[in-house]
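Archive transcription. Copying these from loose printouts into the bound notebook so they stop getting lost. Printout 1 of 2:
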Amino acid sequence: MIFSCLQMAWGIVLMKYHDPDHLQLHIDTTFKMPMWTCNNTVVPRDNVIVLDIPVCMEDTLKEWMNKLRISLASYAEASGVAISFAPNFTNSSASGQETASDRELEVIMDADRQLNSHLHSEISADRFIGHLKKVYEALIYDEQTSIKDINILLREEQLQLLYTFNQTRCDYPKDHTIHGLFTRQAAANPEQIAVVCNQESLSYAELERKSTQLAVKLQSRGVGSGSIVAITADRTVEMVIGLLAILKSGAAYLPIDLRAPEALTRMILTDSGTLLAVSKSLSHNIGVELVNPYDPLSYDNEMDEGAQLLSEGCASDLAYVIYTSGTTGTPKGVMVHHQGVINFCCWLGAKYRMAKIPRILQSANLTFDASVESIFGPLLNGGTLYLIRSELLLHKGAFRNFIDKHQVQIVPLVPSLLSLIADDNKLESVQVVITGGDILEWELKDRILKRGYKLYNHYGPTEVTVDALSSEVEEDRVTLGKPIANTRIYVLTRWLQLCPVGVWGEICIAGDGLALGYLNRKDLTQEKFIANPHEPGQLMYRTGDIGRWLEDGRVEYGGRIDDQLKINGILVHPETIRKHLMTYPAIIEACVMGVNFEGKTKLFAYYTAEGSVATTQLREHLLLYISPAILPSKFIEVAQFPVNLNGKLNKHALVEMAGV
């Protein structure tokens, strides 16, 4: 058996695609071509011996070839099968006939399609061949290069990933502040209704006047540039007044959730250095001075004096701090500047034509950065925000009556609340439904689309000012979409190299929406906001999310890097298994996660189903897609999935449900 350079290149391409710990080399004892697989792909064939070949991406090509020779020599000695290595130089004939190398490329491509296409189904045949040739050239001419450093991308592919997919440059008033743009809207549309809550409403002129009066009061209490002022998430007209007043005073706002434990609130207030809060609900012994936005005395001042006190500030000023625990469980304050919010709101207004469809629902908790979308999105684009009481979000009928009564046109809802509109006749006033903040399930997506709604999926961590990617959801698949204005997306290897289209990597984000970092956490800021290797002089944020580019420039979500597990020696992406589980007809929602069970990490699959579903049926279904070695240990049916205060899946509660 002759082992060619192209066959070696095939194995290395699989390493570059999947970063495995081992490859499987399938040797046909009838002397046919050896074949490569990874992730323990099962190949049930006679006369095939499978060798497990360890992978070290730090090895040079020469080191890896030597290790491969040693492994094959041991096998040859034990089996009596002679194996030799031959370089595979390509020579095109003068007549233009197909060369042996061309034929071998086709054979390898066909074999990979049969054995590994389920692992990289989004990689086109042309790209695969191009990557093979690039590795082949490195094997011939550059064997001292480490495997991790081989660049398998063609020049046009690099340009596509860096520039074509990231053509997002767009003009906007980047030198303005949030409150400065609002003041301009108020001057242009003074009688336009800005905010509605219950039976109360305020015009732009009234909101401008009241927020300025409260800002003067805040400044009289020592608030100014560099201050952080807390505000409770009451979802009232006074909350909106308070937000604008804090910004006008030169400070940044810090939302506080009254449902959170008092110990957490105290920790956040202390960590942020907050000395004053705009609230009537916080305890007077919480440790900060309180200004009650519902008290008429808070607005009792002379406007002329206020005009002298107030200054607009600049776009680089801190606008808000939102504390998020992320995946660590330890709250950290994300600092977002005015420019990031202005860029996002200008994109939002243009994307959803807010000048023509201005009525938008405000349902997100203020401590969730989606609230920026539904508060400042309309206010900076001349629209009207409709504040809905929390209890109305718990009752479908009441919610639908609210939308009908106010003729709301744009409805942002987290996925856990989409059921409010999923099963009844379409609400006629609603022209756009926006979701984000958690995984949008396929089945739920279908229910929304069947009602006739235009559904958009948004993606973005708090660290990039609300959203970085957006997609109009279609019937074929759910994706994160394409980058929004002045945003660049990179899908990178763990060595920060560009992943080819169709290859999973870490989603990294750069652009004008990038946050200033974490408050009082210089170490964590430097860890997550790093120098952008593909844009010198700029920073990018490492999200910790897994994604891949699709051919049309959309990004598909693949789970969290933190969620990756080693099960029976195999690297497992729980999100991939969840997606396969969701293809079973009776499954409505599903979650697959690693759980510490009896001292070992086990995969548990949680699901809701329509009707009775046997565990054996789910196991058999998953075996159509994955190896038996990574089947979930337990399948647990739940009545409904628990969510946290922001409407996201509460995985800690799921662990408790399992009785672990």
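Printout 2 of 2:
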Amino acid sequence: KNIILAGIKTLTIHDTKSSETWDLGTNFFLHDDDVASHRNRATATVLQLAELNPYVQVNVSNILLDESTNLGFLKQYQCVVLTETRLSLQKRINDFCHAQQPPIKFISADIYGVFCRVFCDFGDQFEVADPNGEEPKEIFIQNITQSIPGIVTCMDNRNHGLETGQFVTFREINGMTELNESVQHVTVLSPYSFSIGDTSNLTPHLHGGIAVQLKMPKLFTFEKMETQLVNPHCLIVDYSKPEAPLQIHVAMLALDKFQEQYKRLPNTWCLQDADELLRLAIIVNETLENKAVVNQEIVKWLSKTARGCLAPLTAAFGGIISQEVLKALTGKFSPLHQWLYFDVMEILQALEDTRIEQFQPRGDRYDALRACIGESMCQKISNLNVFIVGCGAIGCEMLKNFALLGVSTGHERGMITITDPDLIEKSNLNRQFLFRPRHIQKPKSYTAASATLMINPQIKIDSHLNKVCPSTENIYSDSFYSQIDVVITALDNVEARRYVDSRCVSNQCPLLDSGTMGTKGHTEIIVPNLTESYNSHRDPPEEEIPFCTLKSFPALIEHTIQWSRDKFESSFSYKPSMYNKFWENYKSTENVLQRMQTGESLEGLFWQSPKRPPCPMQFDISDELHYNFVLSAARLFAAIYKIPYMKQDMSNETISQLLSKVEIPKFTPSAK
């Protein structure tokens, strides 16, 4: 789903298994009639997947993929992702992908109960053009020393944000002009200074200059799975238990061996199978180059929950795997290198003394969930009253997960209340996957509710079009909040979050907040009397009041005070001191006027770094940038004023003839 929304060219989904009731708790595009007719899972979902993005070609494959399959057909793909595949077949396909020139990017992923893993192999030499995707930093320079090494100091003690090992180039340096356009290796000395190469023999730095961070390609070397299995390179995501990834690696290798020997997964909450898995884990650990301490708790819980599946965990890891696919195809952002292990064992701690019968399958869509958390917890989930504020990208994901979990499906209690005043826009469709082109200009909340009911008809949803703000407190009153078990915010602004948080605090209601910005995201769980609230932490105050606020929109007494201070300092301190300093450097009025007439920038009085004097640009019809600017502006004017034109009117020859007859007046600066 995520890969299709990202807009790749072609995607082939492969599956040989038929739809089962069990799948309804994890696959949101499968329905009861697919289970009743035993439809192939790929065939049952392909049309709905293709509907997500009409620009992506989605194909289906049902061929048998085993140890004897000829893997030559994989050469047509740039990236292969394996799930629910035996380890022996994973290794065989990985060997094939790694051996190709260029290598086929390989990703394998598995989720067993509350444990998951991802493995990436992008070849011996995988070059990443942009390791972090951030905009290159530009640093205004205060001073550069003549020394070994040369030390660069930032203007006004501003943080440069660089890291040792990065590269910068320079421009607009006055004096020490040898550095302009040169590439220098950075060694960070402090947040406000860094060192570069030898500047002792360069001309002295006079003033100004800008250091621009260079995006340098980074090369990653990946090993094949066969090698990584015995000496894994694991990413640590939870520093409270840095040893966990290697311990889960051992446990999952033992699970692979268990499946190989017994042709099945361990039975749900079977103590005998847990003991056997522990025995295999001890044997497997001895084969590793970097041996781990076998964690009996991890092995036990893996065995007990291996047949189960948590929908939110699959959603989160599906997102991670999709990101790795996009990294593999684009060469942008640093890839996962090479194993990622993750667990949510914490949710099992309260289930230690629960009877085994609680976890046994009952033949409904919640069996995969029940195998992990038990029937009693499933009942609690079904009776929840949830309030979701916002039905954007995060709101859609939350509703989908709630439908798979069976939230608010209880017979006597349970209701999801969602509200969002917005209508669906075309720009929403690339991330808000519950919506389709036919839904444009329809209410988000109503449409999302209908789509959620398609995933799970048992769920109960009440959708609204209201804002959550002081003017709607007659609807979302204290009595309303007193009936809610948890509030979910899927909002796009801070003030709305602060308001909802204040209502939750006053009504002692748990709050789950989350948000994204580009490639970054956050989530925060707020529990009454246990954690701080959202309003308890704020961004640091701005160092200065924005100039536009002082000039045009003063709204507070502080604004008027600051305006007066600025006026006083400008008139009686800053301007006089600048004037006096200038005439210390330039003694003759005639000399200053002569240099101004030649167009020279007199540092100090008129143009001071980081400001640079503007320079008029002469129009040149042969310059592609100039020509395209005129052509684009002409097209815009024609569209705005509804002036019809033919294709030949915009040809290079016609435009050039017209422009050659235009007399361009000489640029005269404004007298202001």
